[in-house]
Every structure is written in C-alpha cells, then in structure tokens.
Specification:
InterPro entries: Ion_tolerance_CutA, N-reg_PII-like_a/b, N-reg_PII/ATP_PRibTrfase_C. It is built from 3 helices and 4 strands. It is an alpha+beta fold. The longest helix has 13 residues.
C-alpha cells in the first residue's frame, strides 16, 4: 500500500487544528503537521491575492485519499481548498508502514 503526503493550506491556526484533529480522529490520516507562517500569492476570481496561511502536511494512505478530500471540503472555509497529494517515493519503511496502518479503516 502507498503512503501519501497531502498539502492543504488553511486561513488560520484554529482552522488548521480543527481539520488536523478531525482527520486523525477519523483515521483518515496517521499524522498531520501544521506549518504556520506561510505566505501565499495566487490568482482568484481574476485578481492577484496574497494571504498568510498555515500549511498542513497530511500523511495518509492512498485508499483514504477520496474520503480525506471529501472531509477537508466539508470542514474547510475556502470555496476551493487546496488538496494536493504526492506519493511518498521513499522513506523509512517502518514509518511508511505506520502511516498506512494508522490511516486505515476503523473496521
């Protein structure tokens, strides 16, 4: 099974904490790291915008990606939240296995 790292930017620490806690409690993610102090520049509705954000690095398994994405959309205040997944191409094998195990179903 494949481990993924999912990027999700949040408008503030409270939102980031709420999403991180929900994802881990619901076993959609094994671990979520919040990186404060990110400054984003982006185009939205024809305008160039800038915002201070908190970046979430969400560690999950590939089969949980669709459910994780849906949960982020339900919890996130942005109209179009960032949800970008990249495969963990390498790493410490026991850690990657832990990610897969901890982001498995509750069954």
């Amino acid at each position: 099974m494949t481990a993924l790292i999912v990027y999700c930017s949040c408008p503030d620490a409270a939102t980031a904490d709420a999403i991180a806690t929900a994802l881990v409690e619901e076993r959609l993610a094994a671990c979520v790291s919040a990186l404060p102090g990110m400054r984003s520049t982006y185009r939205w509705q024809g305008q160039v915008e800038q915002a201070q954000e908190v970046l979430l690095l969400i560690k999950t398994s590939a089969p949980r990606l669709d459910a994780l994405s849906a949960r982020i959309r339900a919890l996130h205040p942005y109209e179009l939240p960032e949800v970008i997944a990249v495969e963990a191409a390498g790493g410490l094998a026991p850690y990657l296995q832990w990610v897969v195990e901890q982001s498995g179903s509750d069954e």
